[in-house]
Amino acid sequence: MVKKRLLLLLNLTLFVFILIYFTQISPLVPFDGDDWRYIGGIRLPFPMWGVWNPTKVLPETLMAVGGYIAAFVILPFSGDYINSLIFTEATIFSLFIMAFLLTYYKLLTNRFRYGRNISLASELTFFVSFFLLFKHLNYPSYSGFWTVDLTCVFNYLIPNLLNASMVMYMERFDNFYLEFKTMSNIKKGIFILCLYFTLFSSTQATIIIATYSFFKIIQIFVQERWKLTLDYLKKVSPYLVILFIWIVTVIFDLNGQRSKSVQGANRGTFADEISATLRQFNSFLKIQNTKVVYAFGVVIVFAIICCIVIAKHNTNNSNLFISSLLNSIFGIVVASMYLVIAYSKAGSQYAARPDAMWPIIFFFLFATNISFIYLINNFSFLKPFLPIFIVLISLISFSFNYQQVPATNAPYSAKTAKRVDNYIISQIIRADEEGKSKVVVKVPLDSTDANPRVSASNWPHSYDMAIWLQNTLYSHKIIRTRFKIEFKPDNSVNKRFYESRNQQPFAPLE
């Protein structure tokens, strides 16, 4: 009982830290047109043929639900609209991260049969490794939980976290088909619900569960001695269903308006597009800390060697470790190929973004951490060094001499983004209180070629953001009527709110 309470306390502390990180250290501020489009409007909760995003059910419902909670539950107590949105959406994000980490912990204790203490230590190193992988001490860093803006938290990171959590949950059981059969109806219902939102989230993220399912089909086929029997088909039936639905989602998305719009904009040959995407993928590799990548690679290789050496004495654990490692390596290869091909059509710049390449990050860090914990578990003399190791990598990962790259779709801080938001919204509220039917709102001049005839220009404060902001403010009952809002980009707003980009370098202590 004492150990369970300690485990609960430590995970609760970790959750509080994550929440503080995304509300105070690196706040998730609604700032651009996409943020205000999706935070206040909710779609029908099922796939829709031919629309802009046919299968993004999870992002386009959950983000709006968070907006409703912020406006109707948190705002009456806080009195600060923007901070209410930040707190609520960050809480949702933090809960998905914690579910992801706890699922990893349960996999170690239930399937690998590791002790609670060592599994908890691995859970912490798993979390920290998402920051350590991208940490640079001499300039702003990305992280494995970084994204372009608040919208992309729900379009990339949360779908990826859910996919990875579902994979680790299913991997907890040696025979998931039998496990599902013995579940109570409530558990089956919860699993089906989670699977529904997993598959209808993002086709970039669902490559995680699709790759895992394909690997399991092959693995079980080998275990059945290459025989296509009825028992084999039963065992792989959950994975076959997942793969079938995944293929359907890909077909839906390929026939969506967004996909057709992007494909129509591509003018080069397929070889040119692949080449451009590979160059961006190389940029993605460069934003990682090379020394950390090499160190993680050494851990994986050393763990494989040790596994081969001690397999005779620890067969079950070693076989399970090798199976999980092969699954991860297979996932890295397949996800890399899939995403490179996908982004060669969707836009090569995505291949340079950590949030868009998250499946690769997950498989790599999962492989690293299960290798590390495998070594620690099999070489007892290493266990006393775990506390100092965790503390040291945490101090490195969470050094704020340089801040994380802003998640505001602009090179400005979260504090600046909040001030600009409040300035824009105050103009709209004032016009609503005065009973106006139309208001011209001053916004930053974010692009020198801003043109009202091009609705998407002046990003992140594009002209069409006025429509989405009106939708959101009305649905959140910040304004009383749906009156007309027009944006007027003005450089005086930039001078008033935007900070200087010319910053002094950090002076190191030693």
Describe this structure in words.
By secondary structure, the protein is mainly α. It folds into two domains: 1-398, no CATH class; 414-499, no CATH class. The protein has helices at 2-25, 33-38, 59-78, 81-110, 116-132, 150-171, 176-182, 185-199, 207-223, 230-254, 257-265, 270-286, 290-310, 315-346, 358-378, 386-397, 414-433, 465-475, 491-497, and strands at 438-444, 484-490. Helix 1 (2-25) packs antiparallel against helix 4 and helix 13 (290-310) packs antiparallel against helix 14 (315-346). The longest helix is centred in the middle third of the chain and has 32 residues, at 315-346. It is globular. The chain starts with a helix and ends in a 13-residue tail after the last helix. The mean pLDDT is 93. This is YfhO family protein. The chain crosses the membrane at residues 7-26, 84-105, 117-134, 146-170, 190-215, 236-254, 292-311, 320-344, 356-377, 384-402.
